[in-house]
């Protein structure tokens, strides 16, 4: 905060009013509503609701359906995060080391950031399509009869590929700017101390990138959990069937298709706790990042 | 110091191909006619039907959607992207100004209320949000589309960080120069924030344009569909068709990505700076 | 123009930390007062209270005949030059100077006249259309000064205005500030932690320590008669040599170890002896001297700075460090013995309990 601040009895509240109003109506209220209804069993025909305590939570957490969704979400998140981070890191290191064409590469590798997940999903679905998809055809050449939307594994594969494709650019942007902010003097000192370029990378550059990496890890986990909704929705073409879905998608399905208000709300609350933990970790990391700088 | 290796370029070119190829395929396919795509699969070459496909998706209703043209969806996307970015900048700048530059009793309480929105992404409160917007009669309206998205704390945090980095002495000098809170905001702080505003505008425009879940929930009337919202509809019609209009589906996908992609490429340096700096 | 009066001014922060603990200063019209002290001594807080940027917890500040405790900074009729200049980065130099005047509703022609006049005095007329980032450090400093001048205020307040400049420029600007202040005759309050800057600029110095005034006086007075060990060690470079001494009947010696003997009528059982490095002169034959104090030192290091050399030496077995200022031409061997003496009037005595000067009571005569 500033050493000198304005003191006006009314103005700060006036300035904050629009934001607080919207936050109250569209964030706090629905969240409170989600928490409340997670303890109730809603009559499907709208005839009131009964308090059921933690039943919705125990139902959700003990159902095999939920367990398999959670398992897939975990695998999906882990793989998406791992591949998008490592591909981005590789490309960023290379983009940082070349001289010719550096800015062209940078542009080519980052612009996909601007594409919406469902648009990526649509293009992906077409590329993997049974009849017209070149990727399906290519997999066929390798002896892989890919059946997106039918085969559980193939569908999951398709989702992860699209999710990684969509996420590489933002990781690339952050890694590249992290690499470029490594002081030249440190690189020069390392060059004097160590002959092997690879060793230099893993012992000097990589540790200096660690704060960026941790930060991106959280961003990527959040992305895989929440923002991939559009991709998954498109790959499933709105018909989940026996295909893999993530926890967020299940909240949506149970709430809007299944009309299971209480169950959907209980799942929402579980996700809120997850976001809470991730946010705390993220803020800890940001604080640490500040120390590094 | 730097030595160039051919393998570095090879890896970068491979990476670039991985990023670009899907979009090239989408674009090239959109320049063919539906029947040849149906017969021969997705295309990597120019098909010569560019104007046919694009004029059809932009101006003709029917096809994927019954009532709206691609042009209307483009307009809706534009309204969402611009409305979201502008609304967000105004609201979050005012709020951040109050938090950083004013001393008032409820300051930290207000800050934490706004902060709490980070813990409540739309995805964890889908159903009740939907019900509240429905109850307020905001379904199928631009305000229902934009306003609930505006309040998240991100913009406020960006500006708060930025305001905190503005030297304390500026407000002190301004006070000695006789500037009150409103004068200081308009004469000094807003002009100082110009690049920050531009960077946030770009990020927020892309973010707003690319919204999917929220528009999916609250627009059921096709005349309010955005391009991104329309993707699922397009896919569903495409699946059900005898000879699917893959070229037109791809054309809409290209249209849906074009404005944000252009903005990001043209304002690349601002955008990258805004993105990287504001996350600190 | 006007004088400034601070009476028993206190500042206590919300956490209970007292930054200023009762300061009273009477500043006359046109006077150049420098507040000097180490960081955290409360000098900046004091200045900012005069400016109106910090609330006054207790006490009263008046500018002219008006108590300004409750008056907004803009209405106090003062101008301030900040350490980092605080120029508005998006405005041209001209607008930086004019902004405060515009806010006061001064007529355009008058603003233009004042801005051009200030620019002429400060030799920044050629840069009026530039933005601050296109200026060098020294030029920015001038713009910051210009912003103060155009207001034609009752008082200038300077908050370490030269500390962001390099050494050479600092000396140059120091002289210019002094000339300018004398020419304009505006009452000025100047904060710095640099004792040399303080000495050269001030009509009167205010030495602050721990939120309290240690001493107020002209630079020479403060230098020659420091009121406490704090002032003695803070003002002057190299600092005054201070050594703890104890009395055995009428004979004084070092508290730890020997190497010193001195006759004095001081009544205290113990005291602190202060010797300025330049007041120690090197002697060849001690038997001829009437000086009351002769020290036998062992040279440990020599810092030649050209015109003179600072000889670091030790006294006694406990290794009491003493610095002697010697002519630059003279050569010293590390490890050799060096005899120095001091005249009676150059000895300073301080209480070993409070650190306050004992000589000021008048009755203490070194033997």
From TrEMBL, chain A:
Residues 70-282 form the ABC transmembrane type-1 domain. It is a multi-pass membrane protein. The chain crosses the membrane at residues 12-32, 72-93, 105-128, 148-165, 201-226, 266-286. It comes from the Bacteria. GO terms for cellular component: plasma membrane. It is found in: Cell inner membrane; Cell membrane. The keyword Ribosomal protein does not apply. Gene3D superfamilies: MetI-like. Keywords: Cell inner membrane, Cell membrane, Membrane, Transmembrane, Transmembrane helix, Transport. Its main location: membrane. InterPro entries: MetI-like, MetI-like_sf, UgpAE/MalFG_permease. GO terms for biological process: transmembrane transport. Pfam families: BPD_transp_1 (PF00528). Part of the ABC transporter complex UgpBAEC involved in sn-glycerol-3-phosphate (G3P) import. Probably responsible for the translocation of the substrate across the membrane. The complex is composed of two ATP-binding proteins (UgpC), two transmembrane proteins (UgpA and UgpE) and a solute-binding protein (UgpB). Belongs to the binding-protein-dependent transport system permease family. This is sn-glycerol-3-phosphate transport system permease protein UgpA. It comes from Pseudovibrio exalbescens.
Automatic annotation (TrEMBL), chain B:
Belongs to the binding-protein-dependent transport system permease family. Part of the ABC transporter complex UgpBAEC involved in sn-glycerol-3-phosphate (G3P) import. Probably responsible for the translocation of the substrate across the membrane. One of its GO terms (cellular component) is plasma membrane. NCBIfam families: PRK10973.1. GO terms for biological process: transmembrane transport. Residues 74-267 form the ABC transmembrane type-1 domain. PANTHER family: ABC TRANSPORTER PERMEASE PROTEIN MG189-RELATED-RELATED (PTHR43744), SN-GLYCEROL-3-PHOSPHATE TRANSPORT SYSTEM PERMEASE PROTEIN UGPE (PTHR43744:SF8). This is sn-glycerol-3-phosphate transport system permease protein UgpE. The complex is composed of two ATP-binding proteins (UgpC), two transmembrane proteins (UgpA and UgpE) and a solute-binding protein (UgpB). Keywords: Cell inner membrane, Cell membrane, Membrane, Transmembrane, Transmembrane helix, Transport. It is a multi-pass membrane protein. Its main location: membrane. CDD domains: TM_PBP2. It is found in: Cell inner membrane; Cell membrane. It holds the Pfam family BPD_transp_1. It comes from Pseudovibrio exalbescens. The chain crosses the membrane at residues 9-29, 78-97, 104-122, 142-163, 184-206, 249-271.
Automatic annotation (TrEMBL), chain C:
Keywords: ATP-binding, Cell inner membrane, Cell membrane, Membrane, Nucleotide-binding, Sugar transport, Translocase, Transport. GO terms for molecular function: ABC-type transporter activity; ATP binding; ATP hydrolysis activity. It comes from the Bacteria. Gene3D superfamilies: 2.40.50.100, Nucleic acid-binding proteins, P-loop containing nucleotide triphosphate hydrolases. InterPro entries: AAA+_ATPase, ABC_transporter-like_ATP-bd, ABC_transporter-like_CS, ABC_transpr_MalK-like, ABC_transpr_MalK/UgpC-like, Mo/tungstate-bd_C_term_dom, NA-bd_OB-fold, P-loop_NTPase. Residues 4-235 form the ABC transporter domain. This is Glycerol-3-phosphate transporter ATP-binding subunit. The gene is ugpC.
